[in-house]
Amino acid sequence: MGALTPGTSTTADRSPVRGRGEDAWLGKADLHIHTSYSDGMADVPELLDYVEERTDLDIIGIVDHDDIRGALAGREAWAKGRYRFEVVTGIEVTAIEGHVLALFVEEPVASLVPLEQVVDAVHKQGGLCVVPHPLSWLTRSIGARTLARFAGSFDGIEVACCSPAARVSLRRAATLNRRGLGLAEMGGSDAHFLQAIGSAYTEFEGRMGAELKEAISGRTTRAAYGPPIAWRSIGVGHMLRQTWRGIRATPRAMGWGPTARSFMRRIFHSR
To answer: If you placed Cys at 98, which of 142, 211, 249, 268 could pair as Cys (CB 3.0 to 4.6 Å)?
Structure first.
């Protein structure tokens, strides 16, 4: 499969799966969304209402930086409403080697520790580990050598994402995955603004969270792009405020000292 570009999908939009019966539909999941609990610019109620009214996503994943509170708040608010989509709880965990999406978790996962500890903690909860914005030099990302060492421990890898930090390295990451890693191909928006939600997503057979989890574990997911982000509608000032929030996200959650020391430790870990 060639490299994906925004506005493209690996499958027909909302189409039934051939040979699987009329009830087998491809669901859409964006599992990389941030809220104001970390560096996202929308609070939980705003986010849920936007997904309900402005997208056709079947599942979203809330994965704030080093903090599960946003995900739990999202699920609680979702349970009290009448939403047509599901919410997956997660965290974007900062391991020494880079960021990891911990999905389908219920408890906090330790940050600023070696990747092996993060992966073990997630899997002990019955969760899944997905590599976001792989190989990127613009943000704290898992590098090629670490990907190779932990290929048997990760469950999925983002190969479609509209984040500027991700776009610089997605083509290379997709090639590495096809040539040997063999991880579930994922799409995620890395949305920090409402307008970005669903700009990239994961296709899977089914509509429910349990079906999505099974598809990731079975390596049957596919990455896709949704409508392009209207960056002008967000505004430069809003984007600058988000950038400042992003710089402070992990230090705010973990402390400036531990965060700085983790960067020093990262120097001595292969990327």
So the answer is: 142
- Cα separation, 8 vs 197, whole angstroms: 16
Beta strands in the chain (DSSP E): 26-33, 59-62, 86-95, 98-103, 128-131, 156-160, 184-187, 200-205, 222-225
Averaged pLDDT for residues 78-93: 97
CATH architecture of 26-267: Alpha-Beta Barrel (3.20)
Q: Is the pLDDT of residue 10 over 70?
A: no
**Rg of the chain over all Cα atoms, to the nearest angstrom:** 17
Predicted model pTM: 0.88
Strand order in 222-225's β-sheet? 184-187, 156-160, 128-131, 98-103, 86-95, 59-62, 26-33, 200-205, 222-225
Structural domain spans, the chain? 26-267
Cβ proximity of 190 and 132 under 8 Å: yes
* The residue to which tokens 């929308």 are assigned: 42
26-50 average pLDDT score = 96
